[in-house]
Amino acid sequence: MPRQLNIHSDGAYQIAHRLAKQRGVSVTEVVTDALRREQDSRAPTQEVSPEQAAETIRILLEASERAARAAAPGASSDHSDLYEEHWLP
Predict the structure, then answer these.
(1) Element (H, E) at 74
(2) Other CB atoms within 10 A of residue 7 CB
(3) What is the greatest pairwise CA distance in the chain?
(4) What local confidence, expressed as pLDDT, does residue 44 receive?
(5) Per-residue DSSP letters for 6-53?
(6) Euclidean distance between the first and final Cα of the chain, in Å?
(7) N or C end of the chain: which has fewer CB within 10 A?
(8) What CA–CA distance (Å, rounded) separates 45 from 47?
(9) From CA 62, how far away is CA 69, in angstroms rounded?
(10) Is the sign of the CA dihedral 32, 35, 37, 40 positive or negative?
(11) How much is the pTM?
């Protein structure tokens, strides 16, 4: 025998019945689908191992060092000359 779930909410009742009618399915299917979607949306993301994280950091550091070496002599990210004393352009 299937188990029963009682939800004491007029709003939930109205929404579930309206969706069931629109979709041509049972209220049980509407509620089950909504619960499944909620569960799937909160599924934990894949965890990264410490080794994977270390490899990613190593790759990013190498890319950063290559970019720094490729910069023209005297190049800077200082753009203070473009702003006045109150940091307005």
Answers:
(1) none
(2) 9
(3) 78
(4) 75
(5) ----HHHHHHHHHHHHHHTS-HHHHHHHHHHHHHHHTPPPPPPPHHHH
(6) 73
(7) N
(8) 6
(9) 11
(10) negative
(11) 0.48
